[in-house]
Amino acid sequence: MRIFDLMIIATAGHIDHGKTKLVEAITGINSDRLPDEKVRGISIDLGFAYRDLGNGLILNFIDVPGHKKFINNMLAGYSSIDFGLLVIAADDGPMPQTEEHLSILHLLKVKNCAVVLSKIDKVGKDRLSNVICSVKEILSQTNFSRAKIFQISIKTREGINNLINYLKEVAAKYQYRVVKGNFRLSVDRKFLLKGTGIVVTGTIVSGKVNIGDEVIHSPSGHTLKIRTIHSQSKKSKIGLQGQRCALNITGRNISIEKIFRGDWILSKNVFFLTTRLYAVLSILKNEAQRFKHWTCVHLYLGSGNVTCRIAILGNLSVNPGEKKLVQLVTDKPVHAVFGDKFVIRDISSRRTVGGGSIIDPFGKKSSNSYIRKLNLERLKLIDSKSSKVVLNNLLLHHIGGIDLENFLMVRNLTNFEFQDILRSIDVVAELYKHHKWLILRKNWVYLQKLILDELYKNKDHNFNNGTDLISLSNALKVKVPDFVIQNIINESVKTQKMKRYKNLYYFPKHFAQNIKNLSWWYDIEKKFKKYGFQPPKVKTISTDLGIDLKVLEPTLKKASSFGYLIKINENRYILSTCFNEIVSVFEETIKNDNIEKFTIKNFSQITGITRNLSVEILEYFDKKGFTKRLVEGRVILKPFKD
Fold first, then answer.
1. Any residues with CB less than 8 A from the CB of 423 and at least 6 apart, and which?
2. Percent helix, strand, coil in the chain (nearest 5)?
3. What superfamily in CATH does domain 274-372 come from?
4. What's the whole-model pTM score?
5. Three-state DSSP class for 336?
């Protein structure tokens, strides 16, 4: 989906060089909105203004502060821009903040930039010529060496029309963003509006939002609802990627005091927080020293900033002008996805040190050089703008498959975008639909072959020692989730490539050859089915079957080892299928009725089992760690797994 032709332009430059006056001359809007800004004549916070060029073209200006004390707010304005407008006063020439702002534009990979020499009415030709030479020298050190330079006087309006015409040309040719990804807005302002409620503003970094949508406030995780939307200074039914928006939000647990600059308003599909993020970091060329491993810095991400440490992967330092893969270890949880830009400043926040972009927000602790090496290899697989390329890389590298939800969040993909990528990739559909897991079909077939080969090796096995799930899993020698193995086995049984009896698996020919050997179990199984939920003690079963107790006990133990029976204690066995049904009914009732603590009487009532047998089963549960006995009653500790 393509947005209308909106280009976001951010001003940059030293304090009092005329950025706000320039924006006002172009748009007719004074972007200074705070009383202190108007009194003092400087921009303390972000200002916004628009110019409608007609034919659907709109220039969106973000006027950022130039004073070094307000650089934090300035960085908030650079979270999502298309074009930089560097303003330099002709009477002052380039100043410290001029170069720093230019460095930030460079670090955030802003592709286009123009320079405005303001206040030319205050200088002579010689001075103006010298300043132009200085500006060209500075630009030559950056990606903006070919940037156009405009000579402007706000007082006489000289050069204003030339600049506006140039911006029109750039806007008309600009390659506009396609709306993609889940909705994300980085909050830079909040306020209460009488009769309306809470309003937050910011630039929509990705996706779209409609009136009535439910979204998430990050970091609190509270659910919000969009009541109204203002975009481009007018009411709208929808907010789109790249637009400046004001959202009127409401929510049961949200209040104005819980919202801060740097927070995010997000689609629920992409809500997560993290404290370890893999990234590419570039250090500025003008840094005097090498940047060292585990240096503490201020991290500017979106419209917020936190302190963090930089763990350098590989060699433990970065030279000035060099680029390295790193891990950002933040002091507070943050939100980010692949491609998000950031800037780092020294721990005193006095100077910009470097910047880069996020590769993977779900970093892991690198405890040794071997793990760091593995991390580096994986990062090379996923450091691509193409999600399709990354998905192919990951699926080829991870034979057992990858977590779908993790991939979608990291890459900020909608389900529609994911389905579009899948058209050219052959994966096992059932797994991503039911288990949110991605595995290439050719890898699934390869794993199936390993399993069938393992069964064939066991051709001498009979029903006393068939192959169980754990043995088949171990035979793969690669990390594969149990549900993937179970999916392969189920499909193999369905297509007659293997046979299953109880909890054991067999190669088809071996199964046919050994089926007669199960005669020892049939009579016992019939008797236990009649007992159902309440089997008697072993001594009584011996009498019922007419089998001597010394002969019966080894047979029951063998059936238990195959998984046909569950051994509750030395004197009691129960059919596995019946036992699993008891557990299922019990767990479901406890969950549905919100029972936190239960007694023997509760268990007996739920299952219909006698009190004495209930005591034995609950003691078995305690032994397995499924339940825990307290002074009064019992509690469930975890889902049952025999």
1. none
2. 40, 30, 35
3. Translation factors (2.40.30.10)
4. 0.76
5. coil
Tokens at residue 197, please?
């409620």
Which residue carries 């979204």 as its tokens? 215
- Counting other chains too, the contacts that 369-372 makes at CB distance below 8 Å and 24 or more residues apart are 372/313, 372/314
| Long-range contact pairs involving 491-494 (C-beta distance under 8 Å, separation at least 24) | 491/448, 492/448, 492/451, 492/452
Domain boundaries, the chain: 5-173, 184-270, 274-372, 384-439, 442-516, 532-636
Beta strands at 83-89 and 565-569: parallel, antiparallel or unpaired:
unpaired
Written as one string, the DSSP assignment of 549-563 is: HHHHHHHHHHHHHTT
pLDDT tens per residue, range 303-355? 889 999 999 987 889 999 999 999 999 999 999 999 999 999 999 988 899 99
What are phi and psi for residue 610, nearest 5 degrees?
A: -60, 160
Domain 442-516 CATH assignment equals 1.10.10: yes
Q: What distance in Å separates the CA atoms of residue 42 and residue 313, rounded to the nearest whole number?
A: 42
CATH 1.10.10.10 fits 5-173, yes or no: no
Could you tell me the two tokens for 407?
A: 């991939």
Q: What type of residue is 172?
A: A
Q: Which two tokens stand for residue 42?
A: 């400087």
Tell me how far apart the alpha carbons of residues 99 and 86 are, in angstroms, rounded to a whole number.
10
CATH level 2 (architecture), domain 532-636: Orthogonal Bundle (1.10)
Q: What is the DSSP string of 46-109?
A: -EEEEEEEETTEEEEEEE---SGGGHHHHHHTTSS-SEEEEEEETTT-S-HHHHHHHHHHHHTT
Residue predicted with more confidence, 520 or 467: 467
Question: Bridge-partner residues for 467, per DSSP?
Answer: 505
Residue 391 CB-half CA count within 13 A: 29
The first and second tokens of residue 37, run together, are 């800004």
Q: Which long-range contacts (CB under 8 A, 24 or more apart) does 379-383 make?
A: 379/278, 379/313, 379/325, 382/338, 382/410, 383/280, 383/359
End-to-end CA distance of the chain: 51
Pick the closest to residue 198 from 240, 266, 257, 241 (CA basis). 257
Homologous superfamily of the 184-270 domain (CATH)? Translation factors (2.40.30.10)
Closest CA to 83 of 64, 101, 103, 60: 60
DSSP state of 232: T
- Tell me the pLDDT tens digit for each residue of 188-221: 888 888 888 999 988 888 999 999 999 999 999 9
